[in-house]
Design brief:
Layout: H1 6-27, H2 32-45, H3 64-69, H4 71-75, H5 78-102, H6 111-132, H7 136-151, H8 155-168, H9 176-183, H10 185-200, H11 203-224, H12 238-246, H13 253-272, H14 281-295, H15 308-316, H16 323-336, H17 341-344, H18 346-354, H19 357-374
Protein backbone atom coordinates (compact mmCIF):
# COMPACT_ATOMS: atom_id res chain seq x y z
CA UNK A 1 0.00 0.00 0.00
CA UNK A 2 1.05 3.63 -0.50
CA UNK A 3 2.74 4.89 2.66
CA UNK A 4 1.27 8.38 2.49
CA UNK A 5 -2.07 8.57 4.28
CA UNK A 6 -5.12 9.62 2.24
CA UNK A 7 -5.30 13.05 3.91
CA UNK A 8 -1.63 13.68 3.21
CA UNK A 9 -2.11 12.64 -0.43
CA UNK A 10 -5.04 15.04 -0.71
CA UNK A 11 -3.10 17.98 0.75
CA UNK A 12 -0.04 17.28 -1.40
CA UNK A 13 -2.20 17.01 -4.52
CA UNK A 14 -3.98 20.31 -3.78
CA UNK A 15 -0.72 22.14 -3.12
CA UNK A 16 0.92 20.75 -6.26
CA UNK A 17 -2.13 21.67 -8.29
CA UNK A 18 -2.22 25.24 -7.02
CA UNK A 19 1.51 25.64 -7.59
CA UNK A 20 1.42 24.18 -11.09
CA UNK A 21 -1.56 26.27 -12.11
CA UNK A 22 0.08 29.42 -10.79
CA UNK A 23 3.21 28.64 -12.81
CA UNK A 24 1.04 28.04 -15.88
CA UNK A 25 -0.68 31.42 -15.47
CA UNK A 26 2.59 33.24 -14.91
CA UNK A 27 4.12 31.68 -18.00
CA UNK A 28 1.27 33.04 -20.11
CA UNK A 29 0.58 29.65 -21.73
CA UNK A 30 -2.92 28.66 -22.76
CA UNK A 31 -4.45 25.21 -22.39
CA UNK A 32 -4.76 24.85 -26.15
CA UNK A 33 -5.97 21.24 -26.25
CA UNK A 34 -8.60 21.83 -23.60
CA UNK A 35 -9.86 24.77 -25.66
CA UNK A 36 -10.40 22.33 -28.56
CA UNK A 37 -12.55 20.09 -26.33
CA UNK A 38 -14.47 23.02 -24.89
CA UNK A 39 -15.16 24.47 -28.35
CA UNK A 40 -16.40 21.07 -29.53
CA UNK A 41 -18.64 20.80 -26.46
CA UNK A 42 -20.21 24.20 -27.17
CA UNK A 43 -20.87 23.16 -30.76
CA UNK A 44 -22.33 19.82 -29.69
CA UNK A 45 -24.92 21.27 -27.32
CA UNK A 46 -25.95 23.66 -30.11
CA UNK A 47 -26.14 20.78 -32.65
CA UNK A 48 -23.49 22.43 -34.82
CA UNK A 49 -20.91 20.60 -36.99
CA UNK A 50 -17.92 19.40 -34.96
CA UNK A 51 -15.36 18.50 -37.60
CA UNK A 52 -14.22 21.58 -39.51
CA UNK A 53 -11.21 21.92 -41.75
CA UNK A 54 -11.02 25.65 -41.03
CA UNK A 55 -10.05 24.84 -37.42
CA UNK A 56 -6.58 24.20 -38.83
CA UNK A 57 -4.13 22.52 -36.47
CA UNK A 58 -6.62 22.54 -33.60
CA UNK A 59 -9.27 20.29 -35.08
CA UNK A 60 -11.46 18.12 -32.87
CA UNK A 61 -10.67 14.49 -33.79
CA UNK A 62 -12.59 12.42 -31.26
CA UNK A 63 -16.03 10.87 -31.30
CA UNK A 64 -19.06 13.21 -30.95
CA UNK A 65 -20.18 11.58 -27.70
CA UNK A 66 -17.15 12.88 -25.82
CA UNK A 67 -18.00 16.44 -26.86
CA UNK A 68 -21.46 15.98 -25.33
CA UNK A 69 -19.96 14.57 -22.12
CA UNK A 70 -17.86 17.73 -21.78
CA UNK A 71 -20.89 20.01 -22.20
CA UNK A 72 -20.69 21.38 -18.59
CA UNK A 73 -17.34 23.00 -19.44
CA UNK A 74 -18.96 24.86 -22.33
CA UNK A 75 -21.42 26.46 -19.92
CA UNK A 76 -18.66 27.84 -17.65
CA UNK A 77 -16.60 30.97 -18.34
CA UNK A 78 -13.35 30.07 -20.10
CA UNK A 79 -11.03 30.90 -17.16
CA UNK A 80 -13.18 29.00 -14.67
CA UNK A 81 -13.54 26.00 -17.00
CA UNK A 82 -9.75 25.83 -17.41
CA UNK A 83 -9.17 26.08 -13.66
CA UNK A 84 -11.67 23.30 -12.96
CA UNK A 85 -10.20 21.05 -15.64
CA UNK A 86 -6.67 21.70 -14.38
CA UNK A 87 -7.69 20.80 -10.84
CA UNK A 88 -9.37 17.63 -12.06
CA UNK A 89 -6.28 16.74 -14.09
CA UNK A 90 -4.01 17.10 -11.07
CA UNK A 91 -6.37 14.86 -9.10
CA UNK A 92 -6.39 12.31 -11.90
CA UNK A 93 -2.58 12.42 -11.99
CA UNK A 94 -2.42 11.51 -8.29
CA UNK A 95 -5.00 8.76 -8.83
CA UNK A 96 -3.15 7.41 -11.86
CA UNK A 97 0.09 7.24 -9.86
CA UNK A 98 -1.58 5.28 -7.07
CA UNK A 99 -3.27 2.91 -9.52
CA UNK A 100 0.03 2.38 -11.36
CA UNK A 101 1.64 1.39 -8.08
CA UNK A 102 -1.09 -1.20 -7.51
CA UNK A 103 -0.49 -2.58 -11.01
CA UNK A 104 3.13 -3.54 -10.23
CA UNK A 105 3.10 -7.08 -8.81
CA UNK A 106 5.46 -8.10 -6.03
CA UNK A 107 7.15 -4.73 -5.60
CA UNK A 108 10.79 -4.81 -4.46
CA UNK A 109 11.39 -1.11 -3.86
CA UNK A 110 9.64 1.06 -1.30
CA UNK A 111 6.52 2.79 -2.54
CA UNK A 112 7.90 6.30 -2.19
CA UNK A 113 11.14 5.43 -3.98
CA UNK A 114 9.22 3.81 -6.82
CA UNK A 115 6.82 6.74 -7.14
CA UNK A 116 9.40 9.51 -7.23
CA UNK A 117 11.86 7.76 -9.55
CA UNK A 118 9.04 6.95 -11.98
CA UNK A 119 7.69 10.50 -11.83
CA UNK A 120 11.17 11.73 -12.72
CA UNK A 121 11.03 9.62 -15.89
CA UNK A 122 7.55 10.78 -16.94
CA UNK A 123 7.76 14.30 -15.51
CA UNK A 124 8.31 15.89 -18.92
CA UNK A 125 5.20 14.20 -20.31
CA UNK A 126 3.09 15.00 -17.23
CA UNK A 127 3.93 18.70 -17.38
CA UNK A 128 3.01 18.82 -21.07
CA UNK A 129 -0.26 17.05 -20.31
CA UNK A 130 -1.22 19.56 -17.63
CA UNK A 131 -0.05 22.62 -19.53
CA UNK A 132 -2.00 21.71 -22.69
CA UNK A 133 -5.14 20.56 -20.87
CA UNK A 134 -5.08 17.14 -22.52
CA UNK A 135 -7.27 14.14 -21.67
CA UNK A 136 -4.62 11.42 -21.58
CA UNK A 137 -4.73 11.21 -17.79
CA UNK A 138 -8.46 10.52 -17.94
CA UNK A 139 -7.82 7.94 -20.65
CA UNK A 140 -5.08 6.30 -18.58
CA UNK A 141 -7.23 6.15 -15.45
CA UNK A 142 -10.11 4.53 -17.34
CA UNK A 143 -8.00 1.95 -19.21
CA UNK A 144 -5.83 1.08 -16.21
CA UNK A 145 -9.06 0.67 -14.21
CA UNK A 146 -10.12 -1.84 -16.85
CA UNK A 147 -6.88 -3.79 -16.36
CA UNK A 148 -7.28 -3.75 -12.57
CA UNK A 149 -10.91 -4.84 -12.92
CA UNK A 150 -9.76 -7.81 -14.99
CA UNK A 151 -7.14 -8.56 -12.33
CA UNK A 152 -9.89 -8.66 -9.69
CA UNK A 153 -12.05 -11.03 -11.73
CA UNK A 154 -14.56 -8.45 -13.00
CA UNK A 155 -14.54 -8.95 -16.80
CA UNK A 156 -17.82 -7.11 -17.48
CA UNK A 157 -16.51 -3.99 -15.75
CA UNK A 158 -13.32 -4.26 -17.80
CA UNK A 159 -15.38 -4.41 -21.00
CA UNK A 160 -17.45 -1.38 -20.03
CA UNK A 161 -14.34 0.64 -19.17
CA UNK A 162 -12.54 -0.18 -22.42
CA UNK A 163 -15.71 0.79 -24.29
CA UNK A 164 -15.83 4.11 -22.44
CA UNK A 165 -12.15 4.65 -23.24
CA UNK A 166 -12.88 4.55 -26.98
CA UNK A 167 -14.86 7.78 -26.66
CA UNK A 168 -12.10 9.54 -24.74
CA UNK A 169 -9.45 8.47 -27.25
CA UNK A 170 -10.03 6.02 -30.13
CA UNK A 171 -6.63 4.56 -29.21
CA UNK A 172 -8.52 2.31 -26.79
CA UNK A 173 -9.30 0.05 -29.74
CA UNK A 174 -5.81 -1.46 -29.40
CA UNK A 175 -7.01 -2.97 -26.09
CA UNK A 176 -9.88 -4.91 -27.69
CA UNK A 177 -7.88 -8.04 -28.64
CA UNK A 178 -6.44 -8.11 -25.11
CA UNK A 179 -9.95 -7.76 -23.69
CA UNK A 180 -11.18 -10.74 -25.72
CA UNK A 181 -8.15 -12.87 -24.80
CA UNK A 182 -7.87 -12.01 -21.12
CA UNK A 183 -11.52 -11.47 -20.16
CA UNK A 184 -13.60 -13.52 -22.57
CA UNK A 185 -16.79 -13.15 -24.57
CA UNK A 186 -18.78 -11.48 -21.79
CA UNK A 187 -16.32 -8.61 -21.57
CA UNK A 188 -16.34 -8.26 -25.35
CA UNK A 189 -20.15 -8.11 -25.35
CA UNK A 190 -20.11 -5.42 -22.64
CA UNK A 191 -17.58 -3.45 -24.68
CA UNK A 192 -19.71 -3.74 -27.82
CA UNK A 193 -22.81 -2.56 -25.98
CA UNK A 194 -21.08 0.54 -24.63
CA UNK A 195 -19.60 1.42 -28.02
CA UNK A 196 -22.94 0.96 -29.78
CA UNK A 197 -24.70 3.15 -27.23
CA UNK A 198 -22.00 5.79 -27.47
CA UNK A 199 -22.15 5.93 -31.25
CA UNK A 200 -25.94 6.36 -31.15
CA UNK A 201 -26.10 8.90 -28.31
CA UNK A 202 -25.49 12.06 -30.42
CA UNK A 203 -28.63 11.22 -32.42
CA UNK A 204 -30.60 12.60 -29.46
CA UNK A 205 -29.20 16.03 -30.34
CA UNK A 206 -28.41 15.82 -34.05
CA UNK A 207 -31.03 13.34 -35.25
CA UNK A 208 -30.26 10.07 -37.05
CA UNK A 209 -29.01 11.57 -40.32
CA UNK A 210 -27.13 14.31 -38.49
CA UNK A 211 -25.36 11.73 -36.33
CA UNK A 212 -24.37 9.75 -39.43
CA UNK A 213 -22.98 12.93 -40.99
CA UNK A 214 -20.96 13.52 -37.83
CA UNK A 215 -19.43 10.04 -37.92
CA UNK A 216 -18.54 10.44 -41.60
CA UNK A 217 -17.01 13.83 -40.79
CA UNK A 218 -14.95 12.24 -38.01
CA UNK A 219 -13.65 9.61 -40.42
CA UNK A 220 -12.66 12.24 -42.99
CA UNK A 221 -10.84 14.33 -40.39
CA UNK A 222 -8.80 11.49 -38.92
CA UNK A 223 -7.80 10.10 -42.33
CA UNK A 224 -6.86 13.37 -44.02
CA UNK A 225 -5.37 15.62 -41.36
CA UNK A 226 -2.37 13.70 -40.04
CA UNK A 227 0.21 13.65 -42.85
CA UNK A 228 1.46 17.18 -42.18
CA UNK A 229 2.19 16.35 -38.53
CA UNK A 230 4.51 13.40 -39.16
CA UNK A 231 7.68 15.49 -39.10
CA UNK A 232 6.82 17.24 -35.84
CA UNK A 233 9.49 17.23 -33.14
CA UNK A 234 7.18 15.54 -30.64
CA UNK A 235 5.94 12.83 -33.03
CA UNK A 236 7.32 9.38 -32.19
CA UNK A 237 5.02 7.18 -34.26
CA UNK A 238 6.48 4.49 -36.49
CA UNK A 239 5.02 6.35 -39.47
CA UNK A 240 6.87 9.46 -38.29
CA UNK A 241 10.15 7.55 -37.93
CA UNK A 242 9.96 6.15 -41.45
CA UNK A 243 8.83 9.52 -42.74
CA UNK A 244 11.82 11.27 -41.16
CA UNK A 245 14.13 8.70 -42.69
CA UNK A 246 12.54 8.80 -46.16
CA UNK A 247 10.29 11.93 -46.28
CA UNK A 248 6.54 11.62 -45.55
CA UNK A 249 5.51 11.43 -49.19
CA UNK A 250 8.07 8.70 -49.89
CA UNK A 251 7.82 6.69 -46.66
CA UNK A 252 7.36 3.03 -47.61
CA UNK A 253 3.87 1.98 -46.53
CA UNK A 254 4.95 -1.65 -46.43
CA UNK A 255 7.59 -0.90 -43.79
CA UNK A 256 5.17 1.21 -41.75
CA UNK A 257 2.58 -1.57 -41.85
CA UNK A 258 5.10 -4.34 -41.14
CA UNK A 259 6.68 -2.55 -38.19
CA UNK A 260 3.24 -1.67 -36.76
CA UNK A 261 2.06 -5.28 -37.02
CA UNK A 262 5.30 -6.51 -35.44
CA UNK A 263 5.00 -4.16 -32.46
CA UNK A 264 1.34 -5.06 -31.95
CA UNK A 265 2.15 -8.77 -32.21
CA UNK A 266 4.89 -8.47 -29.58
CA UNK A 267 2.47 -6.76 -27.20
CA UNK A 268 0.02 -9.59 -27.88
CA UNK A 269 2.70 -12.18 -27.18
CA UNK A 270 3.04 -10.79 -23.67
CA UNK A 271 -0.59 -11.72 -23.06
CA UNK A 272 -0.18 -15.15 -24.62
CA UNK A 273 2.46 -16.11 -22.02
CA UNK A 274 0.58 -14.44 -19.14
CA UNK A 275 0.55 -17.64 -17.07
CA UNK A 276 4.22 -17.11 -16.26
CA UNK A 277 3.23 -14.50 -13.64
CA UNK A 278 0.53 -14.30 -10.99
CA UNK A 279 -0.82 -10.81 -11.83
CA UNK A 280 -0.21 -10.23 -15.56
CA UNK A 281 -2.69 -7.40 -16.22
CA UNK A 282 -0.51 -4.46 -15.16
CA UNK A 283 2.30 -5.20 -17.59
CA UNK A 284 -0.17 -6.01 -20.37
CA UNK A 285 -1.83 -2.63 -19.93
CA UNK A 286 1.57 -0.92 -19.91
CA UNK A 287 2.75 -2.70 -23.06
CA UNK A 288 -0.36 -1.69 -24.99
CA UNK A 289 -0.23 1.85 -23.60
CA UNK A 290 3.40 2.24 -24.69
CA UNK A 291 2.63 1.23 -28.26
CA UNK A 292 -0.25 3.71 -28.58
CA UNK A 293 2.05 6.59 -29.66
CA UNK A 294 3.96 4.20 -31.91
CA UNK A 295 0.88 3.05 -33.81
CA UNK A 296 -1.06 6.31 -33.94
CA UNK A 297 -0.10 8.63 -36.83
CA UNK A 298 -0.35 11.48 -34.31
CA UNK A 299 1.72 9.72 -31.69
CA UNK A 300 3.13 12.56 -29.64
CA UNK A 301 5.89 11.75 -27.14
CA UNK A 302 3.83 12.83 -24.13
CA UNK A 303 1.50 9.88 -24.76
CA UNK A 304 4.26 7.81 -23.14
CA UNK A 305 2.77 9.08 -19.88
CA UNK A 306 0.14 6.38 -20.37
CA UNK A 307 2.82 3.76 -19.78
CA UNK A 308 3.55 4.85 -16.19
CA UNK A 309 2.93 1.34 -14.75
CA UNK A 310 5.54 0.07 -17.22
CA UNK A 311 8.08 2.62 -16.06
CA UNK A 312 7.39 1.57 -12.48
CA UNK A 313 7.94 -2.09 -13.43
CA UNK A 314 11.28 -1.28 -15.05
CA UNK A 315 12.46 0.79 -12.10
CA UNK A 316 11.37 -1.87 -9.62
CA UNK A 317 13.08 -4.70 -11.52
CA UNK A 318 16.31 -2.78 -12.15
CA UNK A 319 18.31 -5.02 -9.75
CA UNK A 320 17.17 -8.08 -11.78
CA UNK A 321 18.21 -6.52 -15.09
CA UNK A 322 21.57 -7.58 -16.62
CA UNK A 323 23.98 -4.89 -17.78
CA UNK A 324 23.29 -5.15 -21.53
CA UNK A 325 19.59 -4.59 -20.92
CA UNK A 326 20.34 -1.82 -18.46
CA UNK A 327 22.23 -0.05 -21.24
CA UNK A 328 19.25 -0.45 -23.58
CA UNK A 329 16.92 0.89 -20.92
CA UNK A 330 19.10 3.89 -20.05
CA UNK A 331 19.52 4.74 -23.72
CA UNK A 332 15.79 4.57 -24.34
CA UNK A 333 15.00 6.74 -21.34
CA UNK A 334 17.71 9.26 -22.22
CA UNK A 335 16.28 10.02 -25.67
CA UNK A 336 12.62 10.05 -24.59
CA UNK A 337 12.24 11.23 -21.00
CA UNK A 338 15.15 13.68 -21.24
CA UNK A 339 14.86 14.85 -24.85
CA UNK A 340 14.55 18.43 -23.66
CA UNK A 341 16.03 21.39 -25.50
CA UNK A 342 17.62 22.97 -22.41
CA UNK A 343 19.09 19.64 -21.31
CA UNK A 344 20.53 18.41 -24.62
CA UNK A 345 21.14 21.82 -26.18
CA UNK A 346 20.29 22.58 -29.79
CA UNK A 347 22.59 20.33 -31.95
CA UNK A 348 21.92 17.09 -30.05
CA UNK A 349 18.25 17.87 -29.45
CA UNK A 350 17.57 18.61 -33.12
CA UNK A 351 19.39 15.45 -34.18
CA UNK A 352 17.36 13.31 -31.78
CA UNK A 353 13.92 14.69 -32.65
CA UNK A 354 14.50 15.07 -36.40
CA UNK A 355 15.91 11.61 -37.05
CA UNK A 356 13.47 9.28 -35.34
CA UNK A 357 15.80 8.62 -32.40
CA UNK A 358 12.95 9.19 -29.92
CA UNK A 359 10.96 6.45 -31.66
CA UNK A 360 13.90 4.07 -31.27
CA UNK A 361 14.06 5.05 -27.60
CA UNK A 362 10.38 4.24 -27.11
CA UNK A 363 10.94 0.88 -28.82
CA UNK A 364 13.85 0.19 -26.48
CA UNK A 365 11.67 0.85 -23.42
CA UNK A 366 8.96 -1.38 -24.88
CA UNK A 367 11.49 -4.19 -25.48
CA UNK A 368 12.79 -3.94 -21.91
CA UNK A 369 9.25 -4.23 -20.59
CA UNK A 370 8.52 -7.30 -22.71
CA UNK A 371 11.71 -8.90 -21.44
CA UNK A 372 10.26 -8.81 -17.92
CA UNK A 373 7.33 -10.92 -19.08
CA UNK A 374 9.46 -13.43 -20.98
CA UNK A 375 11.67 -13.82 -17.91
CA UNK A 376 8.60 -14.20 -15.67
CA UNK A 377 9.51 -11.09 -13.68
CA UNK A 378 6.28 -9.10 -14.17
Amino acid sequence: MVRLRPLTWTLVTILLGITAYAVLLLSGREMVDFDVYRTAAARAVAAQPLFRLDDGHYQYKYFPTFALVLAPFAWLPKALAEAVWFALSVGMAAWFVRMSLLAVPGRRLSDNTLIWLSLLLVGKFLLTELACGQTNLLFGVVLLSAALAAQRGRPLAAGVLVGAGVFIKPYALVFVPWLAWACGAGALAAFSGVVAAGLLLPAAVYGWSGNLDLLLGWYRIVTTSTAHTLLGHESISLASMWGKWWRPEAAPLALIAASSVAVFAMAGAAAVVRRRVRSPEGLEYAALALIVPLLSPQGWDYLLLLGLPGYMCLVDRWPDTPWPWRAVMVGGLAVTSFAIYDVMRRPLYMFVVNNGVTTLGALAIFACLLRLRWRGLA
